[in-house]
Amino acid sequence: MVDTMQAAVLEEFGQPYILKQIPRPPQPKDHDILIKVLVASYCHTDAIFASGAMSKDLPCVGCHEFAGEIVAVGGKVSKSLEMSPGIRVGVPGRAYNPCSTCFECTNPDKDPMGYSPFCPHAGNLGLTRDGGFQEYCLVDSRQVTKIPDGFPTNQVAPLMCAGLTVWAALHHERLRHAKKVAILGAGGGLGHLGVQFAAHLGLSVLAIDANDKSLAFLRKVKQELESAGDNVQVADVRKDDVASMRAMMRETGDKPMNELGLDAAIILPESQAAFDTGIKLLKNHSTMVIVSFPKNGFHFSAHDLVFRDITLVGSLVGRNYQLSEMLLFCQKFKVSADVKTFPLSQINRLVEEYHKGVSGKLVVDMKL
Ligand SMILES: [Zn+2]
Ligand SMILES: [Zn+2]
Fold it and tell me: 257-266 pLDDT, tens per residue?
């Protein structure tokens, strides 16, 4: 008899998850490890995937940001990774079983040779393979990170995609010398983590949003940052125009107002209005980091790129060394996601809440 387990399976695009018993994954082989899922959080990409816009194969168990406890370890798992049963790991969905031979895998920056989250041939948990909305999951030992002792597990899941994405955006090489950074869509899942990261990194942060709920949430985030909150200015783009937002970021000794601008803007929303605001806030020779992917793309003006020398860069995922650096940083500075938990049986209620525009991150806690 095959062992079964509970899972939330997307069987049709545009339909709710189906909660059902499916076969438990087999024993892990090669670089794989089998984990018992502890927490699994819902990401915007899950909503896009469920809508059918990414046209991957179904059925699929959703979720690409989760955490669990190791149950069994495959034969080729490197000893240096120190993966053994009982250890907790955080799992980002990207780069399951990369090819190890492509350009990305053989030029892995500071990650181990043969492994890259940018490998175009790798699988993606929760998208091309089953992800975290199930009791057990097969994951790649090279894609995960060990969770530091004492770190709360339900805080880990939202950091694996939302956290890492905005962490990597803030650490883009073009931002190495940036001091003043705007985060557009700052009151969302990625944004509220980005504001905390940026403030603790010592950046001056302009946290921008456009609705009362998100702005109230941002003010709470600023307050909870205590002294680091002094680095954060919250702006309501419905009331504050570009000139006043630039003025908020003015520091003693800054050059005349008309020359001022920010060093970088991180665009999290999919709206053209956010893009346009972001680019106007920037000073010449600075950088827009685009993290969102609107269906019809963004329109940019050649004037901004040519005459003002604005650089547009995209940022998607972070590397594995960044994943562990981020967790240690979160532990040190007590960066935390605003988390609302649900049992797996309530996954479709979680999705409904998501579409209502709830602040923070919605997370399945398998213990509930
Ligand atoms: Zn995601
Ligand atoms: Zn590869």
Answer: 556 799 999 9
